Amino acid sequence: MIGFRFGAARRDLPLGHDEAARFLPWVVALMVYVAGLGGIGLIALDETVRAAERSLATSLTLQVPPDTSKARMETVLALLGQTKGIQSANLLDPKELARLLEPWLGPKVPLDELPVPRLIDLQIDPAGPPDLAALRQQLASVVPEARLDDHRPWLAGARAAARRGESVLALVIAAALGLIALSTVFAVRATLRAERSVVELVHLLGAADAAIARRFTMRALTLGLIGGIAGAAAAFLTLAALGGAGSVVQLAAPPGAPDTVAGIADWRVWGILAGAALAAGLVVMVSARLTVRRWLAPLP
Question: What is the 3 state secondary structure string of 193-216?
């Protein structure tokens, strides 16, 4: 008889019949959206720095003043070709320079009207790199204004900036999960207050705390997964819409730095979005269960 009454009363227990519970999926969707984009940002930062290290660790850039004579330029190229540890030296033509300067100056770069230095891309032997101090001295004897960049300062700054960015994104993800848990607690408490008489009645009739908590928990899990899937889908659509926008990462990079921002074809993006939705559902489920069990504990 008690079991029958409890079974009939279960229709009055589900989380979701009050305004607070109806608002829960929207909160979860927003937080999963933020957490999903934050996780993708972590991938982009880490992969960009790693790819830049792989690419720039074997390259140097030599800047030569634009008014350098052809004879001096040929001397510089000959010197580079004879330097031990340098595998190749490629003088960039105006079209390549225009492509590198396009993010700053636009698609039509008037190189002939600007004092743009000539750039020589050097590929070095990672097993036996050249003596940079000696090379700089030799270059200074031919073209005193020549500048040899080895990208190490940029890489060190990029690594430091990436670490700071990853810390911020990790805090954002943690805060999003915390807000999901907090919102669930408030929603479940609001439902318990609204259904207090029914919950106390079925509890008095002998329903186990675990059975009552399970009803709230499963409904909360459903709402959490609905919100999580919606948030993950919104993050996916945002990433798809921004497709090629990752090239802005290159604005602070030296010549030759790769563009390796995560895109929708990256399986890790799918994993992060799916994981964010599932994590949100689990956080909602656990938070709801703990809240209900704690609320039922003092009841006789």
Answer: HHCHHHHHHHHHCCCCHHHHHHHH
Q: Per-residue b/e over 126-151, b at no fewer than 16 CB within 10 Å? A: eeeebeeeebeeebeebbeebebbbb
* Single pTM value for the model: 0.66
Q: How many CA atoms lie within 13 A of 116 on its CB side?
A: 22
Whole-number Å distance between alpha carbons of 16 and 25: 10
* φ and ψ of 278, to 5 deg: -65, -40
Q: In this structure, what token pair is assigned to residue 292?
A: 């209900």
- For the chain, what are the domain ranges? 2-53+155-296, 66-145
C-alpha 252, offset from chain centre: 18
Q: Quick: pLDDT tens for 63-75.
A: 888 888 888 888 8
Query: Average pLDDT in the 257-269 region?
Result: 60
Q: Quote the pLDDT of residue 12.
A: 46
Q: Using CA atoms, how far apart are residues 64 and 72, in angstroms rounded to an integer?
A: 10
Asked whether the CA dihedral 239, 245, 249, 254 is positive or negative, the reply is positive
Neighbours of 297 (CB within 10 A): 8
pLDDT: which is higher, 261 or 216? 216
Q: Rounded CA gap, 37 and 273, in Å?
A: 8
Cα–Cα distance for residue pair 90/83, rounded to 1 Å: 14
Amino acid 62 reads L
